[in-house]
Amino acid sequence: MQGFLAVFVSTYETALDAKGRVSVPASFRAALGGGSRIFVWPALDGSGCLEGGGDELMAVYRQTLARMAPTDPKRRAFMHAIFTRSADLKMDDTGRITLPAHLLEAAGITKKLVFAGAFDRFHIWEPDRFQAFDEKMAQTALENQDALNEPFQQALNAGNLPSVPAGGAGGD
After folding, report:
1. 11-128, what's its fold?
2. CA angle 116, 39, 29 (to 5 degrees)
3. What confidence score (pLDDT) does residue 110 get?
4. DSSP code for 153
5. Which residues lie closer than 8 Å to 93 by C-beta, 6 or more apart?
């Protein structure tokens, strides 16, 4: 696999319906490339959200873990955290999924929830947890803007930056 085709962007607040289902945002369904299979598990970083993606993301995890020694205890821990604790969900024809009770509980979700794009994956948050996380990440980004300088300069020097369309980057 050369790179990710799926890119999950934006934030969507929604709610579980009376049957405990939730509609996956249309742009997230599009990012899954027409696939109806979604994997969701408690995020590995301890943030209190759920992490999810499609077959592409699981393939990356499979490839990454396959490169680790079979007896490595870290490999076993990651396999458990991702594969054992995950739910393999199938979207219905209208794009709805049912999140299992143990995942809802792990994320503190009772009714409302937030889908948040996270590049090659997405997160599902309880809204108050998401707001606190969002504020923290905004502050961290503000304080660390220089972290983008080196990768940008390396890409510039290597000629690996995409060209800007005629008329500039912003319009007028």
Report:
1. Chemotaxis protein chec (3.40.1550)
2. 55
3. 97
4. H
5. none
Q: What confidence tens digit (pLDDT) does each residue in 22-68 have? A: 999 999 999 998 889 999 999 999 999 999 999 999 999 999 999 99
Task: Locate 63 and state its tokens.
Answer: 């490839």
Give the Cα separation of 150 and 172 in Å (integer).
Answer: 30
Domain boundaries, the chain: 11-128
Q: Mean pLDDT throughout 95-112?
A: 97
pLDDT at 71: 96
Q: What pLDDT digit, counting tens, does each position of 104-118 carry?
A: 999 999 999 999 999
- What letter represents residue 153's amino acid? Q
Dist CA 149 CA 155 (whole Å): 10
Contacts of 127 (CB under 8 A, 6+ apart): 13, 112, 113, 114
Q: How big is the CA angle at 54 (ends 46 and 105), to the nearest 5 degrees?
A: 40
Confidence band for 2, pLDDT divided at 50, 70 and 90: very low
d(CA 24, CA 21): 10
Q: Structure pTM?
A: 0.86
Give residue 8's identity as a one-letter amino acid code.
F
**Is the Cβ–Cβ distance between 131 and 116 less than 8 Å?**
no
For residue 95, give every residue at least 6 positions away whose Cβ sits within 8 Å of its Cβ, in sequence order, or none: 23, 24, 26, 29
